[in-house]
What we know:
By secondary structure, the protein is of the alpha/beta class. Helices cover 31% and strands 24% of the residues.
Amino acid sequence: MRVGSRESKLAMRQTEIFVQRMAVANPDVTCEVVGMKALGDIDLKSRLDQLPKTGAFVRELDDAILRGEIDCSVNSLKDIPIDMDPELVIAAMFDRDDPRDVVLPCPLEELPEGARVGTASVRRESILRDVRPDLVIEPLRGNIHTRLSRLDAGDFDAIILAKAGLDRMGIDRPMHVLDDTVFVPAPAQGIIAVECRSDDQETRSRISKLESRRSRAEAGVERGIMKLMGAGCSSPVGINAKMVGDSIHVEAVSYTYTEEPRRVSTDLPVDYVMDELLDIAEYLTGRRDSI
């Protein structure tokens, strides 16, 4: 099986996790990893919300699948556009890792007025400007190690990253977890997903053995609301769903759609209907005043 991956260390680590799990679930399958660069890896100057097309971190991999150059690709689910090519399918979502954001090297409240904070995320930037308008927010692109090296070099007083990526890379250094009811994670943050062609039944069947139903259910809520909002991967929106017993707790926040940011904290039944997601989406985008 030819497995596509971006060439960054984190992407390769996520692909290594996939290969390890495939070896257990499908011992008869041999995986060959094919590395490639995505637009988001090449253009490190533009803000993520200003890149010229959707799927900045997956489009080249998707095209390679459709051309038959690879059989599947391993991605962070948060990078996969909501409106996928109908010829592609997410064959498996892994158990979710910690979806929260972290700030390095000190707690946010310890940063002095005017401290420089680096982030590549419009969502994180919007929340920071909301909760700490006295800080100076500056763009920070690049892989995890590049960002950490710029912090160490003194380019920033602090940076914000996803905890899942640091955990997967085994990076152990001073970091402080941010409250996920304030810094609501990006939709699907913390979930590794595997794409393949929708008509490739053999590959789909093998990959599906790695599926996490819980991740699929939680991401379904998050990506469902996102789709109904008309939001994209780089929108200033945070949505996090957690299965708790027979309900799904939803925290969400949105910026720019309304004059003031809007937040949601609510519970849905596990057998929710689409209208319940629509209620949340319309409130977050200002199309209704309550949910």
